[in-house]
Amino acid sequence: MCTVTSSSVLIIFVVSLKISCAIVPHTSLEEARLERQRLVQKYIKTLNKEEGAIRLVGGRNEYEGNIEVLHNNKWGSVCDDEWDSVEGRIVCEQLGFPGLKKITHSGYFGPARRRFWMDNLFCEGHEKELTDCHFDGWGVNDCEPTEAAGVICESPAGEETLPEIKPEYYEPKSRIHYSQRMEIRLRGGRVPNEGRIEVRLNGGAWGSICSDGWSLLEANVVCRQLGLGYARDALQTDYFGGADLTPVLLSGTECYGNETSLQECLHYDFSRGTSTCHGERNHVAVVMCHILAPDLVVDYYEIERTAHLEDRPMALMQCAMEENCVANEAYDIQRDDPNWRYVTRRLLKFTASALNAGNTDFRPFKDKSMWEWHMCHMHYHSMEVFATFDIYDVQGNKVAQGHKASFCLEDSQCLPGIPKKYNCANFGDQGISVNCSDVYLYNLDCQWVDITEMNTGLYTLKIAINPEFKVSEMSFDNNAAICNLLYTDTYARVDNCRLERP
């Protein structure tokens, strides 16, 4: 039953056979009409069953969660491979929210509960819907449930004041104060260096860690704290015993990766003695540690030495276009211009080299049976996202990005006395041996950034390897080269590079 006073206007609307109402201040009938329209659109948005519709699931409110997309009348998840803020902004805008606060990876709001519809999304930023972006194809993926992509969107201004709308709520994260004594151990494993992680504070009861968002960054801290080397795997599972054995003590754990103790990482409120876990019931954080790990280092001197411009006709880029290696505008030209083959694209080309300076081989995380055959290149690709090439303007906005469908890993060159082990040809094993480098020469297909639509000026070029932290390493702090880029009408110069974290 809805009631109304003389100082207010009553708005009544029907959604899915339910009557809802909202009372708004009586300023004018026009404002009341607009308020009614906004509320109706808000509820219709959640009931949209059209092809390509999206929704957020698993979050603590309607502005956040893992993304699901509708295809063939069935909802499916989106994989976090190459998931970044460009795609995140499109999701939030498609849902009608003002903007993006944060993107999430690694099943931050729990593992995917449905099949993956979309993988390797590549958006330019001007798309109206997520399905306008390039991706591998409906259902084509190699993703695990823990690779669900998500977003935290901004809430509409003033929406939290409406009585029928849940207020925006973001549980704050904090570090465990140094005055509290934290202990950590592994339990349930087959060997001492693996198992579910248990912690306790000040000699209290032992508790597990929620698996939501658990990744190699957090797992590396655990292995380092226990003196067990490096994280080989970070799992979200109940294989070694789940939350039914010990209560969940910590959740929302978020580490940078270089902390010496889990106590230095961020966590949701733990003062109650237990924490809420939004993910798969009974699943907890699990780690497998090992004393050996690879360590990839970007050779930024090679980037500075080889960077140059090339104007290439699209007739010579058909294989690259099959792998989404050009900007979206190129596909518009291909569709609309019958003479598109004679149109040229301006490319920033460079050689990218990654040296394995660790103490064991770098191997792709996908099983060999899941590698993809690429007809254009006539060999198998073992990693979808091994490297990313991004260009940012002086305000920090991404204005161009390189994109490769996937990568083949091999020992291109090794230090004297080191034999080559890995080769892309003939379905050979792939990887990068210790003291060997995988080199992508500038004359290879897709070894570029399409900058045709970019204005001349000063920019920042970022080349990152293993950018999604899918494969364990000793350190991720040397996985990206950040360089100055001067782009003119006739030449480009890359200099002043430095190593950073992706």
Short description:
It is found in: Secreted, Extracellular space. This protein has 502 residues and is mainly β. Helix content is 12%, strand content 32%.
Structure description:
A hairpin with a 5-residue loop joins β10 and β11 (194-201). The protein has four domains: 8-46; 54-161, Mac-2 Binding Protein; 173-290, SRCR-like domain (Mac-2 Binding Protein, Roll); 296-500, no CATH class. With 502 residues, the chain is mostly beta strands. The chain is 12% helix and 32% strand. It has six helices and 30 strands. It is globular. Strands 3, 4, 5, 6, 7 and 8 form a six-stranded mixed beta sheet that branches. Strands 10, 11, 12, 13, 14 and 16 form a six-stranded mixed beta sheet that branches. It has helices spanning 29-46, 85-94, 216-226, 300-306, 318-322, 328-336, and strands at residues 8-15, 18-25, 54-58, 64-71, 74-78, 100-104, 116-118, 150-153, 173-174, 182-188, 194-201, 207-209, 230-237, 248-250, 267-268, 284-290, 296-298, 308-313, 344-349, 352-356, 372-374, 379-381, 387-392, 398-402, 413-414, 436-440, 448-450, 457-465, 480-487, 492-500.
Major sheet summary line: 6 strands, mixed
- What is the CA-atom radius of gyration, in angstroms? 25 Å
Strand content: 25-35%
- Structural category is mainly beta
Let me know the number of strands.
Answer: 30
The proportion of residues forming helix, as a percent range, comes to 10-25%
Overall pLDDT, averaged? 82
- Count of helical regions: 6
> What does the overall shape look like?
globular
Low-pLDDT residue spans: 4-20, 43-47, 158-170
Distance between the termini: 55 Å
How many domains? The number is 4
